[in-house]
Amino acid sequence: MAFSNIEDRLMSMERFDLVQRNAGTADFEFKHVLVRDALYDSLLSSQRSELHLRVANAIERRGATRINEVAETLAYHYSLSTQHDKAFRYCSLSGRKCLDIYSLEEAERYFRKALSLLSLVPQCADDQAMATVVASLLEVLYLRGDLLGLREIAEEYIPRLQTFGDTPQLVFALYFHCMLLAHHCDFAAAEVRAKLALAIAQRLDDIRAQAYAQSALMYCSTILCRHALEAAEIEGSRMLDVCIRSGDNYILNWAYWSIAWDYVCRGLTNKARIWALKLIDAGRERKDDRALGMAYWTLALIDIQDHRFGDAIVNAQKCRKTAATPFDRKTGMIASAIGLLLEGRIEEGLAQLLQQKKLALADGWLYSASGVDFAAGPALAMTGRIAEGIRVLKAGIAACDATGDRSMASWNRVALAELFLGMLSSEKRPSFKFILSNLGAITWVLIFGKHRAWQLLCEAVQNDQIHELSTNRGWIEIDLAKLCILKKKPHLVRQHLRKAQLAAAAQESALMMNEIEAIGKSLP
Questions:
Q1: The domain containing residue 38 runs over which residues?
Q2: What is the model's pTM?
Q3: Residue 19: which H helix or E strand, with range?
Q4: How many independent structural domains does the chain possess?
């Protein structure tokens, strides 16, 4: 039987119940996937490749004015043809399209497909196109929280990118490698990477590259406390201006966050909260949902500093509902667990926190894992594992001191001091079983705890990153006042309470003010 055109052929296949019309588009489609696969597999590989190429060329020609809409279809068909350059191009375009809407699994699949094509057919893309895919894949892996995968790609491709000379893509790759090193708590090496990225970006005079490099350097400078408050505010303002001018959503989110995080590390929770809320407003204005998840877990951590643990749980829950990436979702879960624990839901919060720490360590999130010790250590002690809780906090202090993370080291010092202070001042008599199982640790704290708590708090005060009018400083002064009560030195109690009042007023902390008043009323 002769067929005059494709329509006749399709109608004949419809009569044999092989195809049917799609009700929505009126296009023909196979009625059974097994029939489609059997026919497809019966073709020779050369025939299949030729047909995919013809289909792709037709779609490309018909969709010339809306290529972005058909990019995924073109990536599929060209990838199964011999037109490797177009396969690379459309895999790259599809990956970018998916990344822009945070469809991260799909984005990773397309970018990895593009790189696999390049390894098979090196001439299918030029150096710039390859470098762009590498930088984009690093971004995807970071947002997915896949630091192990990020390290693998960074170590394989950054040396190749460096052979191309100064390029924006090299700056972007160095940025993500910097963030990887920071998450591995190798802050000094991360800072070196950030400075190298900034030098390249400045030579290129590329605004987007400069935005990434300055953001990375700001992050490292915050952790390592390279600037006093006024200088840090100037640097933050410069960085934000560059990031706004870059027009890049990813780095603009991090610009707002970096400024907020610098205030968090200084204990200036009022200003930190303002910048976290600015991140929400800016994200909504740009219709970028990612900003919301970032802002809510940041607000949760600020609430924890403010001892507003119920609010921290609420903001962590908002993060988990709005988070556009696994990175933000995981951080929100850590903040939620800390909030639960500190609110008094010890067993529930501790179980979640230890699980999140285990996952963070397995995934290479060493910085995030180190950030739970200040809450996990005291909780372990409260659940009858005093010696273990003390060991966790001591190890956390030593590790942070070694890496230069001054704010985290101070939080651990204060947590350990408060553990000792709580044991020394508690009016609740523990059970005989509790005492027996913790006899060594309890004896040590009774003998040395007062002196050691004082020493730890004084070391925290000496950290000039903690502002004298900060929330952190206010609670430290309250702890010092409580220790002076145990030492029976009421005149020193009042001195520390006055300093705490100044911090409480500056940060508008009603909770701190109430605590100060309660201590003041107990004095003779």
A1: 6-42
A2: 0.88
A3: strand 19-21
A4: 4
